[in-house]
Amino acid sequence: MIRKIGLRKLLVLLCCGLIVLTVSAAERYAGEFLLAVESPRARAMGGIGALLPGGGFAVARNPAWLADIPSVDVSLLHTDRFAGIVRNDFVGVASPGKNGGVGFALYRTGVENIPYTRLIDPSLPQSGANRVIVDRYESDQEWAGWVGIGRKFNEQWQYGASLKPIWKQLGGGTAIGFGCDAGVVYRPLKQVTTALAVSDLVTSPLRWNTSRSELIKPRLQAGATYGFSNKRMHAEILLAGAVEVRSDEGGSNLLSGHGGVEYVIDKVVALRGGYDKDRPVFGAGIKTHRVDFDYAYRDEPLGVVHMIGVNYRID
Questions:
Q1: Helix or strand or coil: residue 6?
Q2: Rounded to 10 degrees, what is the CA torsion of 249, 31, 43, 236?
Q3: Element (H, E) at 240
Q4: 30, 45, 94, 114: most buried by Cβ count inside 10 Å?
Q5: Cα-trace Rg, the chain
Q6: DSSP per residue over 110-161, as a string?
Q7: Distance of alpha carbon 29 from alpha carbon 13, whole angstroms
């Protein structure tokens, strides 16, 4: 009975998060850096992180996957964006427990050596003698951490939640905030898995030392995967599709589609491709007994995005 009540409460919270996503109005870009938190495998299949187990990424994308972690997983990620100007780094650890699993993760995105300029003499107008010079260099850093748990309700249902502290630094300004993420996974059939995850479930506040406040709006992703084997080709194939809802700075909802396919040959080499919002994505991976190496590629208007990830299993 207690477990049933717990599941019902979680479902109610997920519904509340969707309502908040629809009606609240706050800054869109406050949580923009969190959109890049994705395993290379999930990104190469169209950015469907809520639908895949993900190892150490589970606590950050859908903590429900922590419920059936078979071993201790350590996941590492490095991403270069905009010709290396923006760099993202992620480390996550997931561990099985008696009645489920737990996870911890830390994520940073940063831009280094941002020039702040001034006139040689700010009291005079700009001229040939009073030109613009670089006064100092600053960095833009955005950090997020996760601590989460996952539990099984039965063989078909599992659910989870995580707490998320957030810290930002831009020039001389700093901001701190907190959020909550949650998700559920449901397996109606042996080959079919459905999942739903909400980030920043009840809208996450950010408070700057300049007295300015921002709100990170909820982001919902829901979808399903279908897996099957092709014995003649010695391959395992996984098809995935999802929809994502979040809000823009004016309060309007943004609806995007995500989908992709994974083709694994002899359980060793993985080839992946998909469609992430408005652009095609590609990737590949190599699986071994203990270590997975994954890569994803996405061509954006301001440059190519390269994602390199490693997942290490400790039996």
A1: helix
A2: -100
A3: strand 235-247
A4: 45
A5: 21
A6: EEEEEEEEEESSTTS---SSS-EEEEEEEEEEEEEEEEEEEEESSSSEEEEE
A7: 24
Phi and psi for 41 in degrees, rounded to 5? -60, -50
State the amino acid at position 59 in one-letter form.
V
Q: Are 100 and 67 in contact (CB under 8 A)?
A: yes
Contacts of 156 (CB under 8 A, 6+ apart): 186, 187, 188
- Please answer whether residues 95 and 103 qualify as being in contact, where contact means their C-beta atoms are separated by less than 8 angstroms: yes
Cα–Cα distance list, 5 to 10, 11, 121, 153, 196 (Å): 9, 10, 67, 11, 19
Cα dist. 234→71, 74, 229, 288 in Å? Answer: 26, 28, 8, 16
Long-range pairs for 249-254: beta carbons < 8 A, 24 or more residues apart = 249/27, 249/28, 249/29, 250/25, 251/24, 251/25, 253/21, 253/22
**pLDDT tens by residue, the chain, 315 residues:** 334 435 444 444 444 443 333 333 334 467 778 888 899 999 999 999 999 998 899 999 999 999 988 889 999 999 887 666 778 899 999 999 888 999 999 999 887 666 777 778 788 888 878 888 777 666 678 899 999 999 998 889 999 999 999 998 876 788 999 999 999 999 999 999 999 999 998 888 889 888 888 888 899 999 999 999 988 888 999 999 999 998 765 556 788 899 999 999 999 999 999 998 888 999 999 999 899 999 999 887 777 888 999 999 987
**What does the chain come to in residues?**
315
- pTM given for the model: 0.81
Among residues 200, 109, 215, 207, the alpha carbon closest in space to that of 162 is found at: 200
Q: Assess contact for 263 and 233: CB atoms under 8 A.
A: no
Q: Is 44 helix (H, G, I), strand (E, B) or coil?
A: helix
User: Contact at 8 Å (CB) between 195 and 223?
Assistant: yes
